[in-house]
Write a structure and sequence with these properties.
- The structure is a single chain.
- This protein is of the alpha+beta class.
- It has a single domain, classed as 2-Layer Sandwich (GMP Synthetase, Chain A, domain 3), CATH 3.30.300.
- Helices cover 54% and strands 17% of the residues.
- Strand 1 and strand 2 form a beta hairpin.
- The protein starts with 10 loop residues before the first helix and ends with a strand.
Length: 98
């Protein structure tokens, strides 16, 4: 960690520096994407969601209902936009429903 000459560093800056230096960003993005899916899709969809995984800007979502998978596939662009808005960055480029 780089030494600072001043004694005060804002906590958010210190956390960002720690995350960057320890290469934790990808792992945190995966957790954030999973949380955003849960928050946006709500309890109904989450009860049919068995797995949410972010890999290389692609969000893979495993669903236990083929009917729900078809319904959600019609609104993929909107879902991606809502998730990226919740994440505060364009983290997800594609959504794959399985």
């Amino acid at each position: 960690m780089a030494k600072r000459h001043n004694s005060y560093i804002p906590l958010n800056e210190a956390m960002k520096e720690f995350i960057d230096e320890n290469k934790l960003r990808k792992g945190l993005d995966k957790v954030d994407a999973r949380k955003a899916w849960e928050d946006i899709m709500g309890a109904g969809v989450n009860s049919y969601t068995s797995r949410v995984e972010l890999k290389n800007e692609v969000l893979f979502v495993s669903l236990t209902s083929s009917v729900l998978r078809e319904e959600l596939s019609l609104g993929k662009r909107k879902i991606i936009a809502m998730l990226n808005e919740a994440l505060g960055q364009k983290l997800i480029k594609r959504l794959v429903l399985r």
